[in-house]
Amino acid sequence: MWKQPYTYKEGSAISIGLLVTGGLLQVAVGPLDWIVFMWPGNILALAFLLLLLAVFYALRSHVYFFRFMTTVQAAVPALATAAVLTVVMGLTRQAPEEKPAADVLGLTKMLNFWPFILVYLWNTMIVGEVAIFQICHFRRQVIPSLVCHAGLFIFIVCGTLGSADMQKLKMYCEEGKPEWRALDAYNNVVELPLAIQLNRFTIDEYPPKLMVVSMTTGLPQPQQKPQTLVIDDSYTPTELLGWKIQVLKRIDNAMPKAMAKMMKGMPEGMATRMKMDQLGMRLNEGGFVAYQGKGAATALYISATKGKQRKTGWVSSGSYLFPISGVSLGNNLEVVMPTREPMRYASNVNIYTQKDALNIPTTIEVNKPFSLGDWKIYQLSYNEQMGKWSNVSVFELVKDPWLPYTYVGLYLLIIGAILIFIQKR
């Protein structure tokens, strides 16, 4: 080994050496903290990397190793090692940014794992050196390859060095109250140059479902493959575990009659402070009535028939104000309605900016973020206990100033791939 010209053996030895060196660094200094590359650290690191690559290229006629960097024998083992580490990362549950690795080696925080970082740095240097070589020895035939190499270099460098400047914050907005403070991954309060006021939170729900559960275990039946009935507009009487279920009455926004009477004239918000054990009554004894106030839930009056047996009663998923209601079938079995699943949820908000004194009314929903300057605002969550009556929205605010440059690298990769396919040779 190490006799010129180098082969795949030397290329593989370099990759193995980087893994060993990274392992020693992991033990000696611990995982890499990317915070050291926050601005201006990342731009200085990028300038140093570009200078290093330029020096390598300038000395390639004198140092064989620098010429070896642009060969297939160096690239293939490096790419194979990076691919293996990437697969390991994909198959390993990664720990959140604010928490330490869950394993001794550090594989559960791969982006901070020194062997992973060194291998990807080696790949980046190879790609960068090849791109410089192709620019200095430009020919029309190498344009597709050059575009791919340049795109890959920009994508990796901007994606890694730019991650230190990325901000991910959570903002909890209560209805009617402007909020300009958010929490980072470590629950530190961050004041923002913008404020969000939640006007109204809405949920579109999937149709209600019915299932049979065991009152002993609380598990849906049958346990191996639970059965459910979807009660949509086209529902017709259907069997569920041998019981024919018919919907006799449906109220989408309902409240137990006893509770509705008790809440009549009650100051808004007082019901949310009542404890259910203080009501001193079985709420579903008198049935359900339509109720348009907060805390209402879907209620179905059903009949369940099996041979000569017939059971009737109200089934409801309950809400933060009243408990779930079901119809007993005997033998510790009961027909119940699980909480309706959200199909779409969104927040009607006003966004205020400090710098330009803007007031922007908009709607933010899942997978449809709102962009304002460098910030993207995502609908993240809500008060799941209150469900569709939630008066709180949780937004995620993301600021990634290096993202546009990462996209440039990605688009160059795509263009390069297209050019490769249409190239004659």
Automatic annotation (TrEMBL):
One of its GO terms (biological process) is cytochrome complex assembly. This is Cytochrome c biogenesis protein ResB. It comes from the Bacteria. Its main location: membrane. It is a multi-pass membrane protein. It is found in: Membrane. Residues 340-385 form the ResB-like domain. The chain crosses the membrane at residues 12-29, 35-59, 71-91, 111-133, 145-164, 402-422. One of its GO terms (cellular component) is membrane. InterPro entries: Cyt_c_bgen_Ccs1/CcsB/ResB, ResB-like_domain. Keywords: Cytochrome c-type biogenesis, Membrane, Transmembrane, Transmembrane helix.
